[in-house]
Structure to design on (139 residues):
């Protein structure tokens, strides 16, 4: 299970960095007349990648906390995951809901700025996953 945790955490960390550094900033360069179709394509396409991985990540986290309920790395990872989900559904999704209706530069900037928190949380979660893998595998 720690191997799957490491793989999923790594995949999501890399994906969020690509989104943060490349994709979300590209929202600034899409013409307002084409933005609605661009955003619709983005939302639909990225969901096929992100949602299954996030669901697997949640199942893995629940399994790990049941196996290692007092392990600091597992508990900290679960807390980071809770923060990721909260930011996703209470900050990012509302931004995307606005952008699905209209091109709004202020919302694009808010999405980019607030997504740094998810990027840092997922990166931190990946670091914990590496350490948990090492702890369980080699100790």
């Amino acid at each position: 299970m720690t191997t799957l945790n490491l793989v999923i955490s790594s995949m999501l960390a890399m994906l969020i960095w690509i989104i943060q550094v490349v994709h979300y900033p590209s929202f600034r360069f899409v013409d307002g007349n084409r933005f609605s179709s661009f955003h619709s394509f983005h939302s639909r396409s990225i969901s096929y990648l992100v949602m299954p991985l996030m669901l697997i990540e949640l199942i893995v986290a629940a399994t790990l906390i049941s196996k290692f309920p007092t392990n600091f790395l597992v508990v900290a990872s679960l807390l980071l995951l809770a923060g990721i989900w909260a930011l996703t559904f209470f900050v990012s999704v509302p931004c995307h809901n606005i952008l699905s209706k209209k091109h709004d530069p202020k919302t694009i900037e808010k999405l980019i700025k607030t997504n740094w928190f998810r990027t840092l949380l997922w990166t931190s979660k990946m670091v914990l996953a590496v350490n948990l893998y090492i702890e369980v595998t080699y100790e």
